[in-house]
Amino acid sequence: MKINVLQHAPSAHLPTRKGDPMPTSRNLDPLMHPFARARERTRAVNAAKLDRIFAKPFVAALEGHVDAIEVITRKPGDLTTVASGSWDGGVIVHHLARRSQLLHLPQAHKGKVSGISFSGDRLLSCGVDRTVKLWSLDSQDRTPITTFDGKSAFNSIDHHRSEPLFATASTTVQIWDVNKSAPISNLAFPTTSESITAVRFNLSESSVLASIGSDRAFTLSDIRTGKAERRVVMQFRSNALSWSPTFPTLLLLASEDHNLYTFDVRHLAAPTQIYKAHVAAVMSCDWSPTGTHFVSGGWDRTVRIWEEGRGTKPEVYHTKRMQRVMSTAYSADARFVLSGSDDGNLRIWKSKASEKLGIVTARERAAIEYRESLKDRWKMDKEVNKVLGTRHLPKPVYQASKLKRTMLDARRVKEERRRKHTRAGEEKPKAERAKAVVSEQR
Amino acid sequence: MDALIAKADAMPSRKRKRTQPKSKTDRTYESVIKQTSLPKSLRATKSIEGLPTHDHIANKKLRRQLTRTAENAASSKLLREDAELLLTGEAGGVAVEGEMERTWRVGQAEIVEGAGHEASRGRREWKLDGGPYRTRYTRNGRHLAIAGRTGHVATFDWQTGQLHSELQLQETCRDITFLHDQSHYAVAQKKFVYIYDRDGVELHCLKSHIEPTRLEFLPYHWLLASVGNAGYLKYQDTSTGQLLVEHRTKLGACSTMTQNVHNAVIHLGHQNGCVTLWTPNLPHPAVQLLAHMGPVSSVAIDPSTGGRYMATAGQDSTVKVWDCRNWKGAIREWNARGGPAELEWSARGALAVASGGTVNIYTKPSIHNPLPARTQPPLYLTHPITHRPLTSVRFAPFQDVLTIGHNAGLSSILVPGSGEPNFDSAEADPFENKKSRREREVRGLLDKIQPDMIALDADFVGSLAPESKLTTAVTATLAEGKGPVIGGKAMPNVPYALLPRMERLRLAGKADTTEDTSDWEDDAGDDNDGEKKPKMTKEEKDKKKMRGKGRSLARYLRKQRKNVIDPTAVAIRKKLEKQEAEKRKMEQAAAGQTTDAKPSALDRFKRPS
């Protein structure tokens, strides 16, 4: 008879020398880990709650403007330099890290500054006083290097990515050379006489530019052919546009109908995605440099951060004193979001609300990553999802969104009833995305 | 502009089919892999067979995610099987060499002789005169708490012999249990439950637990459960201190309680022979069964099968083994000689039965095999103890040690093969030091599971919700011509646009009804799950007959909407046709006709079967 009795060798389970860590042993048998799933769920709920507890997105407010901030532009290839232009005609170049002003031009334009763009180390600004001005960043005497005169008030300006060209938007889209005083070409779609509100060069195919106008349309033009190539008329006019930095054919529009739209320019019949959450007109939008997120600011006094392709439940930022958000921008490292509002403050927010600023140790990073994966894995759980998805909204915004939902539901029901009582096949339901586009013109 | 479009379109489309099928073994890869260690991302993914397919899911993103989840679960299962090789501990056992040898003939003296020096220290006798003793081990098996009937209470590290506390309480003590670890313990005394710390200082007197007889601590929920002479089962949350709930069992004084460690359900054995299963969130027993023809003297759950088997012993001196998945009679029962028995099941599935003056130990496969005859399973070990009554039997976790409490103290005997050889130091570590004990305490508090999560099926967390048995919008609307029922409430005239998404899909005939419920993550020994569902009786069939969607759909079309053509009606018609076609196919298949092959001219020569 062979008898074998279990015994643990203490040498294998105790530290060999004093001060050594305790040796650990693992047994992955599920029977050894009762309630493994339930415990993991508890951890996921805790992770979600911690995420909300640490959500303190506001970083700083940069003062200096007297009136609403109309435009925020970051300097290409620079992490910290950002310029903002205001309705009082002032332009400020901010240093984000130091939270100081590199350049302050209190009277850059008469009336509002409607557009700013960096041209290498210099700054281009346009205003409703029918001028475009070129500034040097270290000009202390507050006089422009050059002034370009136009025939009507300018609404927007954008510099070409590589060449010394810039485009302005007024009644037409004009292309200028930095070294010449008159526009070198005029881009206009033949059948329209609208006023253009914004113009942006594509970041990858840099001779293509998109513009939006007051007649509810957005236009794609090419400066090589000197023509407007496509024009898409939508139900409502757009207030801002932005090209995706990583996916060159993707165009983002901030619309007056409270929604944002992404269009693939290869297929303009319908937007690829509608982003619905704002309860008033969306005034501005900007892509994250990673191309996975974008930020929008609205007339409803909120800043929202969206994930590309996810049309609902964006991150919402608001404060009591922030007024209508007229301009938004992502920082170049995609960690921060800037918003300029009617109250004249430029606010810096974290793009991930619960991110820790400062040094993160390796253990902390591991814990954060574990919590992230827990949240991702358990996001279908009701409680986790509830904690993760709930955002506090200011009362007016909350009421407005409730009202809006009721209205939209009523409209949908009404439409359905109408269809039910018309002859079969006479009226077909139209997809929500297809509704947004009225017509596409070539 | 066109350049932009051309540029963007130049991206290779993913839909393009491969011209040649990818060969299964990549020669270059095979040759390179022998010499190098590739990063994880570049390693070839092993194709795992038997993965659930998700071809029926239209949404590409979801399909990919589901496939990936299934792959991950399967591969981690494989990896876990691999990791079993790393387990170093070797389980004990008694192996017979000759045909005529019997393991139960081996006495403790022989076992002690055959055991190693360290292991042989598990065989001990403690002579104490506090009356019959109850004992309890901590979860890591290092510390032992004993309570004598007359009030002698002690806790100690039984391996080093270090005494933590010793109290003479001078009143009846009926049970003792450690809380989350050795730093606290609870004693069921004459009137109330008291909580002491490691040094024996009385911390709390739980006055709501009146005349307690048995105590259990649910470690993952931090609940102390007690049952007493009044027949109330009370749960006290030891992390917040509040009395969570008290259940009136209505079955009189109760002196038998045990917990199922895998789902935290409390099993009570009653005076009238009933065994009841309790969870905090149900005011009545989740299961109640008549187990014995007299009082139940002991209940034990088998932890080695995930709590699948329960053993009960009664005053009628029978021992029964039950299958907790269905309660259709005991799978095995036998007579224990010498009166009511005390039962305990070890981590590796050895069942100890202490009755009369002996402790008998039975091992795994034979206890679970159903046998109609009332014969006892083959005996593994037996040990006589003269100090009757034997009031408690406890296996020491991670040791081959069984501790029996009796009238004259305690005796520990060696039971080779009863203890789990490999512990997981994240769960319970016999060698843990002060720091790791503290860490575990904090972690345990952070991971505390809410008491309302206790259910008979512990795996319901994170699995798919069962489909509601309430009438769905579709059937209700269509059958009665009224509004749908959502969440049990009748909603008259809810328009299609406001229905929940699942209902809309169902109405449009697009709902995914082919839900694949094979769960790759669920693997706690599902090997003997292959039982078929019992056939429906005729009554059940008739009862369910009219409830099918098909009938009500057909009635809907027939009665009200004969000449209405709207999308709903069209969808329903299409669905009906599909169902009928399927039905026809099934019937043909049942009749033995295969319709898959094309009919040929030679069919007429087929012999009719």
Automatic annotation (TrEMBL), chain A:
Family the UniProt entry places it in: Belongs to the WD repeat DCAF13/WDSOF1 family.
Keywords, sorted A to Z: Nucleus, Repeat, Ribonucleoprotein, WD repeat
Basic and acidic residues bias spans: 423-442
The protein's name in its UniProt record: Sof1-like protein domain-containing protein
Top-level taxon of origin: Eukaryota
Compartments, as annotated in UniProt: Nucleus, Nucleolus
Record-annotated Sof1-like protein domain positions: 351-437
Stretches for region Disordered: 1-28, 410-442
Annotated signal peptide: none
Per-repeat ranges for WD: 106-145, 275-307, 318-359
From TrEMBL, chain B:
Ranges of compositional bias, category Basic residues: 544-561
Residue stretches of biased makeup (Acidic residues): 514-529
Predominant subcellular localization, coarse grouping: nucleus
Domain BING4 C-terminal: 379-458
Sequence ranges of the WD repeats: 289-323
Compartments (UniProt record): Nucleus, Nucleolus
Top-level taxon of origin: Eukaryota
Keyword Repeat: yes
Keyword Ion transport among record annotations: no
Bias (Basic and acidic residues) ranges: 530-543, 577-587
Annotated protein name in UniProt: BING4 C-terminal domain-containing protein
Source species taxonomy: Eukaryota, Fungi, Dikarya, Basidiomycota, Agaricomycotina
